[in-house]
Task: inverse folding
């Protein structure tokens, strides 16, 4: 029973932004626990390469490009899923546009583009997912699961990441609203808020910035990308069957430390 509750065999999972960083680590964890994973990012060749690597390791995966800032691309993704699989059990909204610049250097065009990806994209991806999930979710213990990848930057503003912080903060309200409205369909919606993890985003802070963050973290290290995958696994599996509308902070305790 302890192992079976995390078993995702027979389920289809779509992870956006899953050719690198937290996305690919999360996709791998889901695949290792039995899910067929759709690897997705903007470039088809990158998706194909990651999916092929998964398959070489005996995991079930396919690559499918999708720019979540493009409504037509989102529609095409769900048409593919409906035709190819007839279902979607897990959506992980992870793709993000995160420009590294000051507020005064953020022009209106970039603001609009970031809004289309970081809010509109997550919204439209979730709506499309529910339309597939509600057909398969009724009567199942865990139903469909949508997990939005946010950031602790949503609660603690970070210099040079004003756009990122602003739109990540909006996911809390989106998650609650979707959880409330779609619970009737057996679909659960939750948010994971990572702290600073050992990814290319952390590299933007430089060695000094990373060491300062580590010093502020009670567990004394950066997070390992797979650890976000394990959090998503909990929320997507039968283990999280009674969890919806919540936000889970995964940051080694740094939020506790900095207040």
Result:
């Amino acid at each position: 029973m302890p192992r079976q509750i995390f078993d995702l065999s027979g389920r289809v999972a779509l992870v956006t932004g899953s050719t690198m960083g937290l996305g690919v680590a999360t996709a791998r964890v889901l695949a290792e626990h039995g899910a067929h994973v759709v690897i997705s990012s903007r470039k088809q060749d990158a998706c194909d390469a990651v999916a092929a690597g998964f398959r070489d390791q005996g995991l079930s995966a396919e690559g499918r490009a999708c720019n979540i800032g493009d409504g037509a691309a989102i529609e095409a993704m769900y048409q593919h899923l409906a035709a190819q699989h007839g279902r979607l059990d897990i959506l992980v909204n992870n793709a993000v546009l995160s420009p590294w610049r000051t507020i005064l250097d953020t022009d209106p065009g970039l603001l609009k583009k970031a809004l289309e990806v970081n809010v509109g994209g997550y919204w439209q991806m979730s709506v499309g997912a529910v339309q597939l999930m509600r057909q398969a979710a009724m009567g199942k213990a865990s139903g469909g699961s949508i997990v939005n990848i946010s950031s602790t930057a949503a609660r603690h503003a970070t210099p040079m990441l004003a756009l990122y912080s602003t739109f990540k903060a909006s996911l809390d309200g989106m998650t609650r609203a979707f959880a409330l409205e779609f619970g009737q369909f057996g679909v659960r919606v939750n948010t994971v808020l990572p702290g600073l993890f050992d990814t290319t985003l952390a590299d933007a802070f430089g060695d000094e910035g990373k060491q300062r963050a580590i010093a502020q973290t009670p567990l004394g290290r950066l997070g390992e990308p797979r650890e976000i995958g394990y959090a998503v696994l909990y929320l997507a599996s039968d283990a999280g069957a009674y969890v919806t509308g919540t936000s889970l902070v995964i940051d080694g305790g740094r939020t506790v430390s900095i207040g």
